[in-house]
Amino acid sequence: MTPRQAFWRGYWDCAPFILIVVPYSMLFGVVARDAGLDVLQTMSMSVLVIAGASQFTAIALLQDQAPVFIALLAALAVNLRMAMYSAALVPHLGHARLGVRALMAYLMVDQAFAVAVRTYQDSPDMKPAAKVAYYFGAMLLICPFWYAFTLIGALVGQAIPASFSLDFAVPVCFIALTAPLLRSGPHIFAALIASGAALAFSWVPWSLGLIIAALLGVFAGGQAELHVTRRAQRLIS
């Protein structure tokens, strides 16, 4: 596969996610305006952050009169998943130049990461240059739609009837992203622990229960992975 072919494959592989990105980004534009941000502030946040979950978290906390430090901390905690995404992509994209990797980091979004990492795992013979091209193809489809429909939501949000319930896009998006990546027992165990903890700690102020749930999920997944590894070693010996 040539880099050009890989780019367009990545581009079209991410096309189904447009059905999620459009209402998701439009919803953020609406919510941000309702929270008191003007159009410039709304667009600045979307362009600088490009991470819907952390943007929604920050806006929700600021609406609840949480301290700015807490809002930033919670948004950072939600966005720490990008560090895990980066670690997963290093074996495939770590060879790229520093400037290219910096651009990749800026453009990284959940949908394109999920598609890219699964393609890399399913195509172990893909060349390094093709992997870079595939990544950019995936990212460059999602990001323009995110910018454009955030702007539309910010401009016409008040005219969108509440009955449209655009917020359906948030859970649907993350279910679609997460489900295909749960390929082992430790993955499923970590997801179950994190989900249960998120419900159990939903009473914690300022959505800090999400941080607790994330930490518990990571710890549980790590312990489960360690258990599986030790068991396999005992069977071998």
UniProtKB/TrEMBL annotation:
Q: Does the keyword Transport apply?
A: yes
What's its membrane topology? Answer: Multi-pass membrane protein
Record localization: Cell membrane
Indicate the transmembrane segments per the record. Answer: 12-31, 43-62, 69-90, 132-156, 162-181, 210-228
Q: Which Pfam families match?
A: AzlC
InterPro entries from the UniProt entry: Brnchd-chn_aa_trnsp_permease
Cite the entry's keywords alphabetically.
Cell membrane, Membrane, Transmembrane, Transmembrane helix, Transport
Taxonomically, the superkingdom here is Bacteria
Q: Which GO terms describe its biological process?
A: L-valine transmembrane transport
- Please tell me one Gene Ontology term that the record gives under cellular component: plasma membrane
| Recorded family membership | Belongs to the AzlC family.
What this protein is called in its record is: Putative branched-chain amino acid permease (Azaleucine resistance)
Higher taxonomy: Bacteria, Pseudomonadati, Pseudomonadota, Alphaproteobacteria, Hyphomicrobiales
